[in-house]
Amino acid sequence: MTHDGQQLTTRLDADGTLTLSLDDRTWDAPTGSTVLVRMEAAPINPSDLGLLFAAADVENAEYSQGRIVAQMPEKVTNAMAARHGKAMPAGNEGAGTVVAAGDDPAAQALMGKRVACVPGTAYGTYATCDAAMAMPLDDDITAEQAASSFVNPMTSLGFVETMKAEGAKGIIHAAAASNLGQMLLRICLSDGIPIINIVRSDEQAELLREIGATHVIDMTDDDFRAKLKAAIDETGIMLGFDPIGGGKMADTMLAAMEASASDGQPYNRYGSSEMKKVFIYGALDTGPTYLSRGYGFSWDVSGWLLFPFLQKAGQDVVARMRGRVMDELTSTFASHYSDRITLDDMLSRDAVLAYNRRATGRKFLVLPND
Amino acid sequence: MTHDGQQLTTRLDADGTLTLSLDDRTWDAPTGSTVLVRMEAAPINPSDLGLLFAAADVENAEYSQGRIVAQMPEKVTNAMAARHGKAMPAGNEGAGTVVAAGDDPAAQALMGKRVACVPGTAYGTYATCDAAMAMPLDDDITAEQAASSFVNPMTSLGFVETMKAEGAKGIIHAAAASNLGQMLLRICLSDGIPIINIVRSDEQAELLREIGATHVIDMTDDDFRAKLKAAIDETGIMLGFDPIGGGKMADTMLAAMEASASDGQPYNRYGSSEMKKVFIYGALDTGPTYLSRGYGFSWDVSGWLLFPFLQKAGQDVVARMRGRVMDELTSTFASHYSDRITLDDMLSRDAVLAYNRRATGRKFLVLPND
């Protein structure tokens, strides 16, 4: 038995034309350990936007029924040569109901169940995924509550696991008022882990203080760097996570850590021997990262990505993390959506201009077309 | 019994005045496990220049008998607040003869011996150091042959140890025609380790090919990046060491590694999962490091410094490294000096302008005033 519906794809051609398209599609019956999920809710995460639009000019794009045609800057187009000409589905995660399943018992066991899943193709009427990547939900959990149960929860728990593996004393987090940042803060509060939250407005600072944050620093303040150093003096944290990527956030963190580490120490031309580390896990600013290196030689800046982390962490750790997410889905790991749109809406100009802004405080959930 | 002589110091004042000064000094008799070495030869390494002059304007400095007064840029002066007002001795390493020793048997055993040492105060008539940091030399080794037996040899061996610890397949080395680069090349050739040497002139390329290098790439060539990728295709090396620091060398290495790792692979918006790593171990360019991050999230850039490395490596590894250096001091670890100057000469304008240029191919050795 087949299922008919629609699937959103994004295609970049070698000439820089980016085409988003919502097309009719037929899903075959799943085989083996795979299941077919009728999607009921899928969030738009920053990582989804990187695939959907990257740096395309959505402001001046052509919007028509079920189709967007935009222009990608030449440099970005060239850097993405491997995706030229391929219509790629998108949508990392979501929740829905299993309407068909392969013969494998693991797949059959999910038949008719509501699940959270990570298909990578969630912006569609249906999505196929392996039973191992679909988590059955308790009856009192809605699809909306479970839609964001993978990327942000596992990432924020992954930060804490990484911090422990590094032997660090806590976490400095930039763009900390995001959904992910709020989750990370709740985990740290509940686990007694010191966290310094960097935000960029009074409203964001207030939001985090209401959750219970003690160290909240506004990066738009004139004395931002001095405040950051003071918070590091107090906590001893030499580990940062930065989703901005471009510009000087990682550099600012490292400089503040070094200022704190070398305070009162005799001069050392190589900087302090205290190891200072920043993980870049996003690209809210797609420009280059600047490192002044005014902090000696005991520093490290590296990329951080969920899937390689999970692979390295191993099955037991991942199972423990998944279990905690499911247990605390409506508390620690609750997501808040500012906007709910349909699959059709995803291609409207107003919606694109809003959800592609990646503004902290707005988070979109995609619902099926009726 | 005391010893009289002269000591070179460098002092930076809060107003940006940098003063190098060669002054009379009396050394007390050493106690405990320390020895007093009459210095016979000391190299000028890039790491010494960072302390002696940093970014001071030596071109427009005042040169007088035994004294240089130069101006440091304000930003650098402020960044070095911890050294303001302190006259600091310099000279990481050298060789000489032990003329006095503390009561400790380890110190007494070195009495009258010619030793290689790492006192950090080598630009002086005498230097005090712990017996553990002074290696007795065979009779047929001259002070000049042993003067550079620590910094460059241990650093190049440290790169190989680091490479092995990272599980990498070899080393990409920038500014590879340096004394250090030549040592590293000889180690790699003798140990069968693949190495890609990045140089910036035909002469440098020829020099390394004569030693036996197979992969030598000139960064001033138009097709530098393509050649670098081709060499990585051939060797699979995903680990670089960069003494330049500022600018785009680390970025260029990472981009070439990624181009090689993702060649022929399906498009992945997060980049390849192949871990790519560059260690920055110098600051030939003191400007900021630019990272375009056009290579996904599986990358790492970090500082590398000899002393923290040795501390982490542990005594056994360090003893093995030291043993090899002593065994191969006149072959693998031979240093070549283009210029020999006296302690007095170190303060002459002509000499400063030459040795502070940090030009590959020139290396200065400091000898005692007669």
Automatic annotation (TrEMBL), chains A, B:
Pfam families, per database record: ADH_zinc_N (PF00107)
Record GO terms (molecular function): NADPH binding; oxidoreductase activity, acting on NAD(P)H
Sorted UniProt keywords: NADP, Oxidoreductase
UniProt domain Enoyl reductase (ER): residue ranges: 16-291
Protein name stated in the entry: NADH oxidoreductase
Lineage of producing organism: Bacteria, Pseudomonadati, Pseudomonadota, Alphaproteobacteria, Sphingomonadales
